[in-house]
Each structure stands twice: as structure tokens, then as C-alpha cells.
Amino acid sequence: MKPTSSQFKKSARVALVDPDLQRAMGFIKTGFVEKRRAAVERLPEFDALRRSARGIKEHTLQNLDFYLEAFEERVIANGGQVHWANTPQQACDIVLGICRRAGAKRVTKGKSMVGEEIAINEALEGAGFEAIETDLGEYIIQLAEEPPSHIIAPAVHKTKSQITELFHKHHARYGYTERQTEVPGLVDEARQVLRGKFLSADVGITGANFLVAETGSTVIVTNEGNGDLTNTLPPVHIVTAGIEKVVPTREDVSTLLRVLARSATGQEMSVYTTFSTGPRRQNDLDGPTEFHVVLLDNGRSQMLGNEFHAMLRCIRCGACMNHCPVYQGIGGHAYGWVYVGPMGAVLTPLMVGLDQAGDLPNACTLNGRCQEVCPMGIELPAMLRQLRRRQYQNRQTSAVSRMALAAWSFLARRPRLYRRVLGAAVASLAWLARVRGRGRFRHMLFAGGWTCARDLPAPQGASFQNQWRKRRQGNQS
Amino acid sequence: MTSDATSSSRNDTPSIRVGLFVTCLVDLMRPNVGFAAVKLLENAGCRVEVPELQSCCGQPAYNSGDFSDSQRIARQVIAAFEPYDYLVAPSGSCAGMIKEHYPQLFATDAGWRNRAQQLAGRSYELVSFLHDVRGVAELGVARTGSVTYHDSCSGLRELGIHGQPRALLGKISGLELREMTDSNVCCGFGGTFCIKYPKISEHLVSNKVADIADTGADTLLGGDLGCLLNIAGRIKREGRATKVYHVAEVLAGMTDVPAIGDAELPDGAT
User: Fold this and answer.
1) What are the residues facing B173 on neighbouring strands?
2) Chain A, nearest residue to B262 by Cα
3) Fewest CB atoms less than 10 Å from the CB: which of A250, B17, B115, B157?
4) Whole-model pTM?
């Protein structure tokens, strides 16, 4: 998708007054934050587990070339193929080439954030293939022609009644003319429609939560079982994954899975965990006849070893966005690209360009809750600050804010002048408040950013420093 | 400096020398918090001085990506406070800047990094200093009514301040502490964030004010003036009656001044 992150401010304003979105976002607190908290409480060794999970990812990143090559060797030994893509365009071309060679018409898809990153649906449809999302949330937003608003709950911004209308509009042609207004009815209808697609698909595309170097397996976790129908029924299975997804062993995967599910949904384990290891073997009863893994770089290798290195540890659990008060307020679409919330505010500028996404690193209070809950201990606030530093160095910040900052710094570096200038300023503000008999200002020139949302409490009077000096002089004389 | 401190104890003055980092917001907006800090520190057996060469900790520049001005300001703070046994600030945000971020600011400058680390090791937020370092057990303060406490983010997550203010508030006879929902969630201040993204900030602070109102407490307390100015401003804008004070003012029994954003003296004050 074309990034719309440059429209952030406007999109956020609209989102904040959208009653349906605000109602839907209420789920984040009850559905994710509370459940994660309870799951962590039930597991006293969660922090130790988190540390070992982090160690596994860090070790792998330190030896990324080795584990990626080991993974490739095992995939080939299993009878599969590995394709390396530097850019989203290359990744799409590889996938389209495989689909064409397979003579495919219909392609089913499991949920894949790399799929979103490379915009594979648009590419498939543009090339004349029918692409069908099979994860319920992804299916909903595909019908609505919207991007995901959350990395694990892509349709979290939709209310039930919006989904009722969406299904009513799109499912009539399959003979479902009655409006389903309850969750079981909606799920059942989607399941019936998708069943036919699963059985007639020529290619299945999934993402990967992990790639296992020792076995050449790709691993996905789902709660709906749609991933299994996508990767076993069609004759061709394509996996799209970022290069940072590789881990050394199955044992490592099991550690990471325990951290992932708890951080994401508060589950002990996701309902389905599936290892795909090569195409169907001679005596297998089912499975694809072709198995392809498309490994995407798209800027990741640039992040290795620089100040954003730790971002490659991200396992896409969504805990950072679930706990972000800004995300909870504005939802995912305002971020303007496929990755949202704090992790998106770091990744989007790095992947689509800081000039395209200048608001994202700034629209954050640096409250640190994302880092606190991140199972991988990624210092997201520090990274956002580093992006601000790049903006400042590249002069990508507004002239007004640069001037205000420069004036402040000029005074701050000259404490005596600072005391005289600002001491006089607050004393006159305090006087103004006093003669009006009020302790606050409703409006103030040059402070509209503050007073449009709240009153400005008046200063008490003379500054502390000026009062302190005066008292000391009084004591000495 | 330690020897200096020891020698001064001989002539019956407190041996612990604290340099008070006033913070720019307390200095300019709410001096009463600074005087409350002085009183609390003196009662805890410290000799308090206010180094003249201080202004701001440099956080506005740091969080705006201007690391070089931030370094210049940090050097000034380090030099001014090096002579003291402790640096104490009535703000988790500024103390966090000095303790956590100054050493990082000089990652590539061994000399200043060392000085920053030395100072970081002796720098504290006021309430945690009183509780953890000075072991304050009695305040000699009474107050009727109910309060609720907002955990400001930097103090909570960078410095682990959570139990200390509650423990000290528990020593005030007659005071009832009512916990709010999500006391650990950001109020939407965020420094320049609140004026750059006022609508998002308004959403966050409105949620905070609703959580505060739900407790029914008559007073909101917190340890960071930035957050308190934001929340008090919103409380006033919504026409609510909750009073807002910095926790130091209550701990010191110095609430005989109008609450933040008020012109009138609180009930019962003379």
C-alpha cells in the first residue's frame, strides 16, 4: 500500500472523534491488556523466559548470515526452494512467477505482515489472480478494502454491526441474504464462504512467525486453523518472511512461542502451531507438492549493528501497541502504513522514509510503557528519540519549533540571563492572573497548542530562584 | 567533598550536603514545591544548597533530537552539582534525565561519561530519596480528606518510583489514599508532545481526569509538575473541583497556598 503517514495529524484528529472506532478500540484494554496481565501473573518465571527469548534472538542476529544459510540448506535438502528478495518489488515478482508457473488462478492467504509490507494482494490482483485472505480479520478488511489496523488483530477497529453490513453486502452472491448480527453467525457464514475457496485454491501463501535453521521448517501460529488449510490443501505453498525470523533450533522456537502467545493475546499457547518442513514426501497423505520460502530484506540488513538493531528482535506480538495510550486513542490507520503503534513508529520511517512519516517518531509521549511490556526488551522510546535526532540533523523539523528550541537552549545555557528574562516573564503572568482574580488562563497568545485542550495554570509569582536569593541575602544582612 | 561534609558536621550542621535541582517548571511555575522540598530535606537531616548555575536539565532539547545543546546543558549541570553529596530534584522526569540519560549522552566521550556516571549515581528524585536513602519514617503532618496519586511515567519506569510516595503519604494522619484505575498510564503531557499533538493529548488527559474523578478523591497528587499542570489545566477546563498539588507540598504540610490552577486558598487554610 501507498503510505499515508504524512497525513498523520489529520487522520488522528478524525479517528479521535469517530464513535465507532472509539467503541471498537475499547476491546484493546479488555481483550489484550487485561489478558496479558493475567497470563504474566500466572507465570512467575515470565521475566526469566523473556530474558532467554531475548538472548536467543540476539544470538541469532549476531550470526544471522550463518543461520540463514543453514536454513536455506535444510529447505533445499527437504525438497523446497529459497528465494532471496532485497525489495518488496522483487519479492512480489518472485511470488507472481511461482503462481504463473503453477498455472494458478486462485490464491489463498494466511495472515502475513510481510505480505502486507510487500503489498502482495495488490500485486496478485494486478496480475490477474484472485487473492483471498483467510484469517477472519484479514478477510474482513479485504472486503472493506482497508489496510490492517493492528498487526495481530487487523480488523480490531471494526464494530460488529459494521461487519454485519459488510458480510451482507459481499455474501449475498453466495446465497447468504440474511443479516447475521451475532458473532457465531458471522463466523459461521465466513467459514462457509471460505471453505469453497480453500478447496479450490491453486497456491497458498502464509507468513512465518519463525524459521528454524536446524530443520528448514517455517512456523506459524493461528487461532483459527486457516493457516493449516492454506498451507496443506493447495498444490503450492509459498512462505513470505523477513530475514530476521530465523532462529537456530526447535527448542528455541518453543521458548519464543511461550513468550509470544502470552505477550500477544494472554494465551499460554496459540490454538494452532504449525511447522511446515518442505513439500509432501513420498508417503505423506497430504501437503503441497511445491514448497517455496521468499526471504525479504527490505532494509533489515541495514539495521543490523546500527542504533535500530534491537528492532530486529521484534516478534510481532503487538504488546507495544496494545499498551500505547496514543494507539489506543487513534487506532492503527492514522499511522498510515502496515506497521502501527510504537513498533510501526520505528519501522515505518526506516522502511518508507523519514520524510514520508515525520510525525510518527514525534507523536509519542515517551512514557515507556511499550518498552516495559515488550517481550524482547526493545528500547522503543530511545529509537523514536534517535529518529527525532535524525530529523533534527537533517533539518526536517519545522522552522518555528527549531527557533523556539534554540531560544530555550540559549537561555538554559546562561542561567543568570535565564533567571532575569524568565523570572520577569512569570512574575508578570502571575500579576496578570492576580489582578483578574484567577489562577489560570483560558487563552494565551502563542500558547494555543496548550490552551486549546486545557487551561494554563498561572505561575505563583516570583521564581523560586529569585525568592531563594532574596531570602539568602536577607539572612546575610 | 565527603571530607568537607564530615568536617562540617563538627560544628553541628547536618553533614549531608544536598544540591537541590529545582527544575525549570518548579522554579518558574510553582516555587512552593521548591520550598517544600527544602523543608523535607532539612527535616531529613540534610543541608540544602541551591547551586546558582542551574536552569533546565536539557530534556526539551534531548527529546527534540538536539543532542548537542542537550550535552552543553548537561555539562553545566554536572559541573554545578559535582561538589555535593547528592543531587535531588522534585521531579522523576528531570531526575531520570540526569540519572539515566546523561551517561548515554556522553557515550563517545569517556571523560564526560565518567563524570556523568558519577553524578548519576548520586542523583535522586525527591520522594524516593527521602524514603530510600534517608529512611524518613515520620513527617509530623496531619491532613484530612482523600487523595489519589498519579504515577508519572519517567519516575515510574526509569526510576521505579511507585511505593515510596504511597508509603510516605501513609504516614500522614487522617489522609485517605484512593487508587485510581490506570494510575500508571500517561496523562498526555509528554513535554512538547502536548502542544504538537493537542488533540491526542486532550484525549489522554481527558481519560486521566475521568479516572481521577471516579475515585471521588478531593485532591490529586503527583511527583512531576509537567503532568500536574496538564491535568490541573484539564480539570479546570472541564469545570471540575478536584484540587491538584505536588506530593512534596502535601508531605511538607505546605498546602496553605492555592492549589495548582486556583486563585483561592483551599478550604480551611489561613
Assistant:
1) B142
2) A439
3) A250
4) 0.95
